Amino acid sequence: MRQKLVAGNWKMHGSREMTDALLKQLLAARLPTAAMLVCPPFPYLQQAASSLQGSGVLLGAQDCAANESGAYTGEVAATMLADLGVSHVLLGHSERRQYQQETDALVLQKAQQALAAGLKPVICVGETLAEREAGQTEQVVLRQAQAILQGLTAQQLQQVIFAYEPVWAIGTGLTATPQQAQDVHALLRSAVAEVSPQLAETMLLLYGGSVKPDNAASLFAMTDIDGGLIGGASLDADQFLAIGYAAE
Ligand SMILES: O=C[C@H](O)COP(=O)(O)O
């Protein structure tokens, strides 16, 4: 049985005040039995780490560098994140693929760095609206996933999580129907099963894209959906908690 995971991606939102208030509100409530992960922007990771210490709420980053260390101005190494108490890192989010031109090869390189530092990479995959309308959903999602599945060892893959995020559903209020999401998750799980049937049983596959308290339960009820990657709704502690409870 896979333990569900609900991850909040704050994207480029927040301040010290907001980080303090949101995490206080989260920790004052009964925490969901599903694992909860928050991914604030880099400058607030240390503050979040100290607020979350001993709480059981996990801390993630939104990206890491593709190199171990060196003259890479502006980059943040996976080892630095691990040093701060970060356990997970989002990689290949569609906003990075789109605005920073991140390729499948780069995402794999970042995943290697994350794993070497002991972090769990959350690899984001998903098709654009044009790709879905052109009937290319499976092809795009499999290409993005295969770069990871073929580039890492079976042992490394035990630490990997995939997040399926149809680009057309991100921040738009349009959500994939539970069945649309399940179809892609089943496809992903069968691709994982080709590497190792045992790995396919244990690997977490999250859904992301306009997940809200009112649609979370129906998505999380699907066989191959093991939780969510939440954007907008993770900036509101009540909504984030409600989504967590929907994953129980
Ligand atoms: O990483 C999170 C996703 O991009 C979903 O964002 P959203 O919940 O605001 O649609």
From TrEMBL:
InterPro entries: Aldolase_TIM, TIM_sf, TrioseP_Isoase_bac/euk, Triosephosphate_isomerase, Triosephosphate_isomerase_AS. It comes from Marinospirillum alkaliphilum DSM 21637. It is an enzyme of class 5 (isomerase). Pathway: Carbohydrate degradation; glycolysis; D-glyceraldehyde 3-phosphate from glycerone phosphate: step 1/1; Carbohydrate metabolism; erythritol degradation; Carbohydrate biosynthesis; gluconeogenesis. The active site is at H93 (electrophile), E165 (proton acceptor). This is Triosephosphate isomerase. Involved in the gluconeogenesis. Catalyzes stereospecifically the conversion of dihydroxyacetone phosphate (DHAP) to D-glyceraldehyde-3-phosphate (G3P). One of its GO terms (biological process) is glycerol catabolic process. GO terms for molecular function: triose-phosphate isomerase activity. CDD domains: TIM (cd00311). Its EC number is 5.3.1.1.
